[in-house]
What we know:
By secondary structure, the chain is mainly β. Helix content is 11%, strand content 44%.
Amino acid sequence: MAEIVVKYDNKVVERIVTEKRRLSIGRTNENDIVLENRGVSRKHAMIEFNDKAAIVIDNESLNGTFVNSRKVSEEVLRDDDIITIGKYQLIYNSQNSSSTDDAAGFDGTMVLNTKAHRKLVEKDRKERKLVERYGGSLLLGGENTDFSEYRIDRDVITIGKAKFVHVRAKGFWLSGIQAKIVKENDYYKLVNLGRKGKTMINGEPIDNQELKNGDLISVGKSTYKFVEGKNR
C-alpha cells in the first residue's frame, strides 16, 4: 500500500492511500489524481507500482515533472521523495502505519479532501474565468497597486514610477522604468531595467526570467500576480 500526500501552496490538500498498480495524474477529471492548475497538463504523468518499486513517469508534459527539484522523464521513487507538478507537490511513501490501520480491508484508492484544497481550487477557477473574460494573460493587483486586474494586451508592458509607464509601482529608489514584461514567442518574461534587487519573482531578485502561471512579481513595494492566459 502506498500513500501520497498532495500539497498546494505548501498546504496539505489531499491524502491518497492506494493499492492500485497505476495512478494517472493530470488536470482533467478522468485522472486518479486531479491537479487543477494551468501549469499541469491534461494527462501530465503517472505512477506505476510493481512488487519492487514505484516509478513516476512523465507523459511528455509541457512544464515537466520534477523529483526532488530535478526534472525527470522516469524515476524510481523512494520514501519521502517530493514530486513537483505545476504548483503542486506530491510526497510519496511506500507504507504508512496509520494509513494501513485506517484502511484495513480497503481495496482501491482513498482520497481525503480538505476545505483548504476546495478554497484553493475555487480561487484557481475564478482566475480562469478572469482569463476567459479578458481573453489573455493578466496581472492581478496585490499590495500597493491601483488596479485589481490588468490585461496584458501588448508585447511590452513597462512597470515603474514614471507617469508614462503602463503599470505604476510604488517604493523608494525605484527607477522611472524599473522593469518590463516582454512577450517572446509563446511566453512572457520579466526583465529588470532599473536598480538591482528591486524587481523580484517569488521573493527572488531577477535580471531576466520567464514568467510562469501564478508567479508573484514584486517591483518595489508593489506586488502583482501573473496569470497565464493559455492552457498548457
